[in-house]
UniProtKB/TrEMBL annotation:
This is Uncharacterized protein, isoform A. The gene is anon-38C.22. The keyword Signal applies. Keywords: Disulfide bond, Hydrolase, Protease, Secreted, Serine protease, Signal, Zymogen. It comes from Drosophila melanogaster (Fruit fly). GO terms for cellular component: extracellular region.
């Protein structure tokens, strides 16, 4: 399932399907088990919102007028219905709000397999880069398992029945190459974890609903885009991200052409 807010019916169904599995537990922490942070430390982070100001996904500023987010975030909207808040620790106030001129999601995105889960948003006008608004460089090499990374966002603080914080959150996690994520150590298997994906894991730490589209960063480069996962911070189920390095050509080409 993706990391947009899910319906109660879907949540209950998933909880029922996991009943009795000792490997699954429901952590009730932050982002999950994150901490409040200031946007100056994560100036590439943006909030993707409806024009009514409702946050529904995260994103990453990759140049002065371009945001990278998840394809699954963009399925129900027209560009005229969207805005992006940049340069603010709060998802509901501060910074700058910029309307959206256009967006495009990957032609090969598949909602069942969750492959190619990336989209480009073009802002209606460029933003001036400051200490609170700054583009991030795209990763250009495959992830190395064990590398420390950070994921940030305004998503829910646990999987079931939690509110979303107004203050930006972050957690530190460790990268997992997709082949390691698909190995028997974890519970997804090779049919679910594909080469356009990268995983990240931490002890009771993860992204969650509402963090979709947001940044996974290692060594000051954008490595992943929050995509999907079974629950949030469940034992044996790392967070799964669109792999920026493997999708870099599409991202660059679409950024230039859109």
């Amino acid at each position: 399932m993706n990391r947009l807010l899910l319906s109660v019916v879907a949540l209950v169904a998933l909880a029922a399907s996991c009943h009795g599995n000792p490997g699954l537990d429901f952590p009730f922490g932050r982002i999950v088990n994150g901490e409040d942070v200031d946007i100056e430390n994560y100036p590439y982070q943006v909030s993707v919102q409806t024009t009514k100001g409702s946050h529904f996904c995260g994103g990453s500023l990759i140049d002065s007028e371009t945001v990278l987010t998840a394809a699954h975030c963009m399925q129900s909207y027209a560009a005229s219905e969207l805005q992006v808040r940049v340069g603010s620790t709060s998802r509901s106030s501060g910074g700058e709000v910029v309307t959206v001129r256009a967006f495009k999601y990957h032609e090969g995105y598949n909602s069942k397999l969750m492959i190619n889960d990336v989209a480009i948003i073009k802002l209606s006008s460029p933003v001036r880069q400051t200490s609170k608004i700054r583009a991030i460089e795209l990763a250009d090499s495959e992830a190395v398992s064990g590398t420390n990374a950070v994921v940030s966002g305004w998503g829910t603080t646990c999987f079931l029945f939690c509110s979303s914080p107004d203050t930006l959150q972050k957690v530190e996690v460790d990268l997992l190459h997709y082949k390691d994520c698909a190995a028997d150590t974890y519970n997804y298997g090779s049919d679910s974890i594909l080469e356009t994906m990268v995983c990240a894991t931490g002890e009771k730490k993860d992204a969650c609903q509402g963090d979709s589209g947001g940044p996974l960063v290692a060594d000051n480069k954008l490595v992943g885009v929050v995509s999907w996962g079974s629950g949030c911070a469940w034992t044996g189920y790392p967070g799964v991200y669109a792999d920026v390095a493997s999708l870099r050509s599409w991202i660059v080409d679409t950024t230039d052409s859109l």
